Amino acid sequence: MTFAKRHLLGIEPLSPDEIRTLLDVSDQYVDLNRSDRKSGQALAGKTQINMFFENSTRTQASFEIAGLRLGAHVMNMAMQASSIKKGETLIDTALTLNAMHPDLLVVRHPQSGAVNLLAEKVNCAVLNAGDGRHEHPTQALLDALTIRRAKGRLHRLTIAICGDIAHSRVARSNILLLGKMENRVRLVGPPTLIPSGAADWGVEVTDDMSAGLADADVVMMLRLQKERMDGGFIPSEREYYHRFGLDPAKLRAAKPDAIVMHPGPMNRGVEIDGTLADDINRSVIQEQVEMGVAVRMAAMDLLARNVAAEAEGVMV
Ligand code: NCD
Fold this sequence. Notes:
Elements (H helix, E strand, L loop, with lengths): L15 H19 L12 E6 L5 H12 L3 E5 L9 H12 L5 E6 L4 H6 L5 E7 L5 H15 L6 E5 L6 H12 L3 E5 L15 E3 L2 H5 L4 E4 L15 H8 L3 H4 L7 E3 L12 H4 L7 H27 L5
Parallel strand pairs: 1-2, 1-3, 3-4, 5-6, 5-8, 6-7, 8-9
Helix pairs in contact: 1-5, 1-11, 2-11, 5-6, 5-11
Bound molecules: N-carbamoyl-L-aspartate.
């Protein structure tokens, strides 16, 4: 078993073996979550603080449930209500919390790099729950687990990631993870929503849905992140749906058994047809949410084991 990390800040620093370890432990937690017992002791007596400086439904609930199921004391700080925005204030908050001796700090922040900065200032394990456009490692891991369970493997697959790539930390973490595991990744979207330099990431880029989806095993749709746009990225939502929204007709270009994914929250009728999103024969969107709890249990379990091992002078 390999997972020699103090924090989970992104996919970038993880090796393929570390990713496999995280997914293997997650599989065990999927079984636990489906059982009647649904609880473990891996985080018994630990204190987990969730600091979400940006709105979140599923990620925050998922981290909270994951901690509670493993016996941690979980505290949610109501960050949205506060006016904390500046880097300096973030560090002050981190130092204040650090003085209370938490074991796990789960942080979502609108600025790219803010969570890494915070991790340098505290003694406990830090998990990035999404920082700006940078990374969202647990989302990429839960997507990987969903794909591995649906397809029976996580290599040599063709995966089309479609839509607003430019503003998406989900896309970035997924591109890194799927590339490390040797898959073929295609980015599909209007040129205004594809970051410049994307062609250097080892991915194929196209603005044509039928070319991008051709023979794909996995079609991953992304939300149009309007809160990160300052105007002019798309002509209109209607036109965007016409060209880039996933519907049964566009999906026909993919393999007949291709799965449809979306990290949520969804804009039905903008990036995806609502009926297709609910079609349990094609869409694995609810499985993604289920896998999210297991992945977060695994990540916090492994980090807590490393903290314990470090205290004894050895890492797993
Ligand atoms: C994503 C996020 O916050 O980056 N959502 C999530 O965590 N499930 C994607 C999004 O907001 O569109």
